[in-house]
Amino acid sequence: MGKNLIQQRRGKGSPTYRVPSFRFAGFAKLPAMSDELIRARVVDIYRDAIHSAPLAEVLYDNNKKGLLIAPEGLKVGAVLEIGASASLAIGNALPLENIPEGSLIFNIEKMPGDGGKFVRASGGFARIVAKTREGVVVELPSKKKKVFQPKCRAMIGVVAGGGRLEKPLVKAGKAYHIKKSKNKLYPRVRGVAMNAVDHPHGGTRSSHKGRPTIAPKNAPPGRKVGKLHPRRTGKR
Fold first, then answer.
1. What is the torsion angle, in degrees rounded to the nearest 10, for the CA atoms of residue 9, residue 15, residue 21 and residue 22?
2. In angstroms, rounded to a whole number, what is the distance separating the alpha carbons of residues 75 and 60?
3. Any long-range contacts for 142-149 (C-beta under 8 Å, 24+ apart)?
4. Mean per-residue pLDDT for 96-116?
């Protein structure tokens, strides 16, 4: 008697695995590629339940709003530039071929125009190592080197919110609520694995659900049936 794999249980769509997307601010990604320089003014900065990094709400030139991963040092009112002719400033997005070697970048596109897929977690950054015929070599936070297409865009700087993991959770309840906010599965201990004092299914060395069938010592006459309560237990 087996049980479903976790990915099979998740696919069923039960409330345990259903992500509360109505609480999320939206997708934080770069706008579609354009030959012209795109300017975005930072309207607000806030945190989102699904993103570990703070999000910057920006207003583009065409009066449309969007979300971007916020870098360290970003302020409300700052103007970001997106495009090949953008300046080399924190928060600006340029193609990798236009960013000098050794620069710290984040929110790197996997394919040109996809909005950013790599290095988006709080405090994360990658580094441009070299530029070759095959593409631009980038060292990811895992120290692994990956080759990207030169036209892939990336934002300059370090993702804000660094040091998030340095603060201890202290107690299991904090970890439970963090998982619950994103609807991640939190481990539950089986009752049969507990001691008898902790759960009705606990006790006995085998995984056996059960409770003592011996009638209590002070049970009324109508309940004093079956296995009567022994006068004492153990060896003399």
1. 170
2. 16
3. 146/118, 148/96, 148/108, 148/109, 148/110, 149/96, 149/111, 149/112
4. 96
Q: How many CB atoms sit inside 10 A of residue 111's CB? A: 11
Residue 188 within any structural domain of the chain: no
Question: E strands of the chain, at which residues?
Answer: 38-46, 55-60, 65-69, 79-82, 93-95, 104-106, 126-131, 136-139, 145-148, 153-156
The token pair at 229 is 């309560």
Task: Indicate the pTM of the whole model.
Answer: 0.78
Domain of 34, in residue numbers: 20-160
The CATH code of the domain that includes 107 is 2.30.30.30
Torsion of CA 116, 119, 125, 129, to 10 degrees: -80
25 inside domain? yes
Q: Give residue-wise pLDDT tens across range 53-65.
A: 999 999 999 999 9
